[in-house]
Write a structure and sequence with these properties.
CATH class of the largest domain in chain A: Mainly Alpha
Order of helices and strands of chain A: HHEHHEEEEHE
Number of strands of chain A: 6
Strand order of the largest sheet of chain A: 1-3-2
Largest sheet of chain A: 3 strands, antiparallel
CATH topology of the largest domain in chain A: Arc Repressor Mutant, subunit A
Radius of gyration of chain A: 18 Å
CATH architecture of the largest domain in chain A: Orthogonal Bundle
Distance between the termini of chain A: 36 Å
Largest interface: A-B, 33 and 33 residues
Structural class of chain A: alpha+beta
Oligomer: homodimer
DNA sequence: CTACTTGCAAATAATTTGCATGCGA
DNA sequence: TCGCATGCAAATTATTTGCAAGTAG
């Protein structure tokens, strides 16, 4: 259970289990789409009407620090998005019209490529991003394209 | 000559050739590293001490619109970076310590991969990003890692 | 009880916009 | 001259921080 695991990590690192924190965690556990801070806040407010956006931001930092969530490496809309760490390496399909972001398992980067580049460029690769931007099925025929 | 080409594009699209605009263009032509708005401003100020950061931003938009520069799809430091369109497809090596960004020609994404995904996911791919994050040769042994 | 947390308000930082003046074509 | 451009100041947006009060353990 991913939620129990996260709560265990809170405890081990001296963080208290507050209802707000728990609810923010639940939003991610119950959702495998990347969410913005505001979206997380919007969901948590349903149950904790007084929770502030600040608290969401502060808890996102902690979840990041504990490796429970990740911040996406790309920004389309001028704000960051965060997603639960699934444990499996993956990338994303991102719609340039509606912003919908879907995870895909496919990765084109092979270990031979990595070795060659590390050798040639004297660069130690820690991670990589690979994102596909385009139009999702629903947005194919929409005329207007968002600016992001 | 890339600069002449850009100036031609300005003309054709009804944009005037102001000294500030020309100087901003020159910064990119004389530099193949991705630059932030502030870095561009810093360079242009050397020659036009009164130029405002606003003007830089406004001209970056125009350069983007005309396809003369591109905005990088990833953000590490909380701000966007822009680079001259080289005409060749490429990706980047990005140092997580010092932020240095180098272009590389290597691309792992093949047309067969593309076709398969477009078919399977019913997603029309318009562009993709592929960035390698890690430590450059100079930063290998540095102890501190920046937060971005 | 005590340190971590929270909400509120204010501060930052990047980027954008309104407006009157300036200047290229 | 005329409309696009610029500089300045103020607005916006995402995110961060200071602080006093609240609460988990």
């Amino acid at each position: 259970m991913r939620e129990d695991y996260a709560i265990e990590r809170f405890r081990k690192n001296g963080y208290k289990i507050t209802p707000q924190r728990q609810e923010i965690l639940k939003v991610f556990v119950g959702n495998n789409l990347p969410l913005s801070a505001e979206e997380v806040h919007r969901k948590v407010v349903e149950r904790y009407p007084n929770i502030s956006l600040d608290t969401v931001y502060r808890n996102l930092s902690i979840l990041l620090e504990l490796g429970i969530i990740s911040k996406l490496d790309f920004i389309l809309e001028g704000k960051s998005r965060y997603e639960l760490n699934s444990g499996k390496h993956h990338h994303h399909l991102v719609c340039l019209k509606c912003g919908v972001t879907e995870a895909i398992d496919f990765c084109p980067f092979k270990s031979l490529d990595r070795e060659k580049i590390e050798e040639e460029k004297k660069f130690e690769i820690k991670k990589h991003s690979f994102e596909l931007f385009g139009h999702c099925e629903l947005c194919r025929e929409k005329p207007q394209e968002k600016s992001f």
